[in-house]
Structures are given as structure tokens and as C-alpha cells.
């Protein structure tokens, strides 16, 4: 079973920041937090991952709480093309990914 | 990021025939490749894990004689669905890792299989 809890759906206005929460209260010290997204009828796309520190790349920022029990993925300026299902996954290094239901993010014009 | 391709993107076949799907890592060498299946409105389900030159490791409930996996090189893995039936119709997705800690799986675009 997936070790994460995400809201089933969220809306965000185009141009605004999209903040996607994820709870992983049973995360172990050696487990990473990964985020992927899947646009309809396509393969998942890697977004970002982190262990303890906040991370930022060209796509998004990942904010991990100090106790590591939750995290937030931030898309700073959402566009219509960011409409997708977003998956938060905790994973021991190099072990398999276990997929939950994810959050369906809808960007509205 | 790393690029993974799949071929074909879509295939329709008759019941009882076999279908081969190719997965290639285009700009890196993949020490490990994975095959997933996804039914409509469901999450990805891992079918098997393969390492180059080794036999694939199948998840519980996945028939290894029906879903043949070959990982002959560091850039190519194939999945053959043998004697396909309508219930095998699904979205098949591969992913690849290049090694390192932690490693990241990069996914192909998927193959839509429809068995008539």
C-alpha cells in the first residue's frame, strides 16, 4: 500500500502558485519523497525529489517539514498544461515506487 | 531529464496473437528497467523488474510465461504479451534507472494495447 495521503482533487487559477500537499506520517529516515505527474494517456513525468532539505528545480519546489511527516509541492506559476494527476511517493533508495491515487490538479483559465 | 521511448505507442491485435513492446533509454544506460500496467482510472501497477543480462523479477500475480521480458542491452528492454486476450487490453508503461543513490525512474510515453 502507498504510504502517502493526498487530496483527491484540487483546482488552481492559471498564473497562480499551485500548492499540492502530501502526508507521509510513517516515513522512515532513509526514505525519499518523490513527486511525479501524469498527464492523461501519457507516461508519468518525474518532477522532483528530496530527503530532508527543501529542493527547487526548473519545474517546481519541494518543501519538506522538519519532522518529515508531510511535504508540499509548489508549481510557482501554473499553466493549463500543468493539469495532470500528481503523485507523491515515499521510497527507500532504489526500491520500487508504490503508486497511490494521487491528486488530480485542474488549472482553470 | 533522461529520455525513455516506447514503441509502438498504440497497437490493436486479435485475440490469441502475441505483441512485442520495446522500451529504450535514449541518452543513458539503464541498469534497471521496469514494466507497469495501468487500467482506466487506476494507478500504475508494477509488473516486473529487469536488470540487463538477468532474468526479470515478476510481481505476485503476474504470469511470467505470458508476459515475457527481455533486457538484452543497457538501452533496450522488450515486453512480449503472448497469446493476448481482451482482458490484457491496457496501458503498458516502462521506466528506466541509470544507477546511483538515490536513483530516479524515468518513464516512457506508454503503449496502448487493445485486444479484439
Shape of chain B: globular
The percentage of residues in β strands of chain A lies in over 45%
Helical percent range of chain B?
under 10%
Biggest sheet record of chain A: 5 strands, mixed
Helix content of chain A: under 10%
Radius of gyration of chain B: 13 Å
Q: Provide the structure class of chain B.
A: mainly beta
Radius of gyration of chain A: 13 Å
Count of helices of chain A?
Answer: 0
What's the pLDDT, averaged over the residues of chain B?
Answer: 93
Euclidean distance between termini CA atoms of chain A: 35 Å
Largest interface: A-B, 21 and 24 residues
Order of helices and strands of chain B: EEEEEEEEEEE
Task: Give the total of beta strands of chain B.
Answer: 11
- How would a crystallographer describe the biggest sheet of chain B? 7 strands, mixed
Strand order of the largest sheet of chain A: 1-9-8-3-4
The topology string of helices and strands of chain A comes to: EEEEEEEEE
